[in-house]
């Protein structure tokens, strides 16, 4: 039998160095599976050359990458997306419908903000805004300015420098660069949630009900997904955490549960 290949798509400003990518790599090695992390443009240590970056609904990018893996790998291909990457993977699966089966054996998302407006408002308020918004902007703003140096006039540089939250950043940079009118248009068209009923490949959608970035009220219910979609919504786990035992906790539980589910679909 050919080895299964697990392809991971990371979260906002994540990479193969992210804790969840390392934990999944260890899991894959323990199960004798191949593993790859697909870096979104600009997240692999060098800037891409085109006048675009990456976004939550970038299903064309997911499609190209998965088909590329499918063309060179003999065994089953299994896709897992974390946070932003999870929304993009589910957006892809919904867009492809039954044709996804020719590319992958199964897909999974972990802590994905499937309703981007709900997630966007959650990250823009209170403690999240104080801590996480600043952390993301400290990483995203310098990259945007390097993109501007490559492509002068690509966006409104002064407005980007004034952006104090992700909503404003996406309005100036992410939305117009990728063909959306503004942040609201981006959130509406890139969200995977409305496309979950169209998924026709085995799919696992994991969201903790106490995720600070993804409000529990915005999570899909059983009537909002196709019968190929399995929803797992534990009470605890936070955002891409799911630690077990005493603090700082063991981050193995999530990769093991999600990974084993994916591998079962691949057999």
What do these coordinates show?
The chain has 267 residues and is an alpha/beta fold. Helix content is 42%, strand content 11%. It contains nine helices and six strands; from the N terminus they run E-H-E-H-E-H-E-H-H-H-H-H-E-E-H. A six-stranded parallel sheet has the order 2-1-3-4-5-6, with helices on both faces. Helix 1 (19-31) links the parallel strand 1 and strand 2 (34-38). Helix 2 (59-72) packs across helix 3 (84-96) and helix 7 (166-177) crosses helix 8. It is globular and about 55 Å long. The N and C termini lie close together (9 Å). Residues 247-251 have low confidence and may be disordered.
Protein topology:
Layout: E1 5-9, H1 19-31, E2 34-38, H2 59-72, E3 77-82, H3 84-96, E4 106-110, H4 116-123, H5 126-150, H6 157-162, H7 166-177, H8 183-190, E5 203-206, E6 229-232, H9 253-266
Structure summary, number of beta strands: 6
**Rg for CA atoms:** 18 Å
Strand content: 5-15%
Shape summary: globular
- What is the element string, with H for helices and E for strands? EHEHEHEHHHHHEEH
Spatial strand order of the main sheet: 2-1-3-4-5-6
Distance between the termini: 9 Å
Number of helices: 9
Largest sheet: 6 strands, parallel
The helix content, as a percent range, equals 40-55%
In terms of structural class, how would the helical and strand content be classed? alpha/beta
Contiguous uncertain segments of 5+ residues: 247-251
Mean pLDDT: 89
């Amino acid at each position: 039998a050919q080895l299964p290949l697990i392809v991971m798509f990371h979260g906002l400003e994540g990479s193969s160095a992210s804790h969840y990518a390392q934990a999944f790599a260890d899991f894959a090695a323990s199960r004798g599976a191949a593993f790859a992390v697909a870096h979104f443009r600009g997240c692999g240590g060098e800037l891409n050359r085109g006048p675009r970056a990456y976004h939550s609904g970038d299903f064309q990018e997911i499609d190209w990458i998965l088909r590329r893996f499918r063309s060179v790998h003999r065994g089953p291909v299994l896709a897992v997306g974390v946070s932003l990457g999870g929304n993009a993977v589910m957006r892809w699966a919904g867009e492809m419908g039954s044709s996804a089966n020719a590319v992958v054996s199964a897909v999974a998302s972990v802590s994905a903000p499937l309703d981007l407006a709900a997630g966007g408002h959650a990250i823009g308020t209170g403690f999240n805004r104080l801590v996480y918004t600043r952390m993301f902007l400290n990483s995203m703003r310098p990259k945007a300015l390097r993109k501007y140096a490559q492509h002068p006039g690509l966006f409104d540089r002064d407005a980007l420098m004034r952006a104090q939250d992700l909503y404003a950043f996406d309005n100036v940079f992410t939305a117009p660069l990728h063909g959306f009118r503004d942040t609201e248009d981006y959130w509406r068209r890139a969200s995977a949630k409305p496309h979950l009923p169209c998924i026709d490949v085995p799919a696992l959608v994991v969201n903790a009900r106490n995720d600070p970035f993804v409000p529990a009220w915005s999570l899909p219910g059983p009537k909002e997904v196709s019968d190929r979609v399995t929803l797992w919504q534990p009470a605890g786990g936070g955002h891409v955490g799911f630690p077990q035992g005493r603090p700082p906790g063991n981050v193995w539980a999530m990769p093991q549960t999600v990974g084993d589910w994916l591998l079962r679909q691949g057999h």
